[in-house]
């Protein structure tokens, strides 16, 4: 794969993955509003726990989809011969652990960098989202406690 092809496909897949991630965050926000109304009579610790666990599940779902998208790319472009290698490489790259036991040849190194950037941005968005949700939940509980 040429450098331009890697940049094109890497950018397209990165954009697609982030679109999925942001979409999941938006759906999660809507679902949290609904859950909040349904469990408003529960104890504060129960409400916080339920809502944070739900948010974490949505984030894990989104991240898993993104890893599978990258795994599929490695198979489609015949970078790796097996799903085992493709998924393993995707996870290691996505989390930026980069063990180095499975590496890309020069024909796909730039594409691999886009996979790492996807992981960085997705984990960054996830962290910011969880902090915002937690702050909002704690502020609501603080206000409710003050009444």
List keywords for this structure.
single chain, 147 residues, mainly alpha, elongated
Distance between the termini: 63 Å
Shape: elongated
What structural category do the secondary elements indicate?
mainly alpha
Radius of gyration from CA coordinates: 19 Å
Helix coverage percent of residues?
over 70%
Provide the low-confidence segments as ranges. Answer: none
- Integer average pLDDT: 92
E-strand count? 0
* H/E topology pattern: HHHH
- Number of helical segments? 4
Q: Report strand %.
A: under 5%
Largest sheet: none
List the helices and strands and how they pair.
Layout: H1 3-38, H2 44-76, H3 83-94, H4 109-146
Task: Write up this protein.
By secondary structure, this protein is mainly α. It is built from four helices and no strands. It has helices at 3-38, 44-76, 83-94, 109-146. The chain is elongated, with a radius of gyration of 19 Å. The model has no long low-confidence stretch (mean pLDDT 92).
Quick synopsis:
By secondary structure, this protein is mainly alpha-helical. It has four helices and no strands. It has helices at residues 3-38, 44-76, 83-94, 109-146.
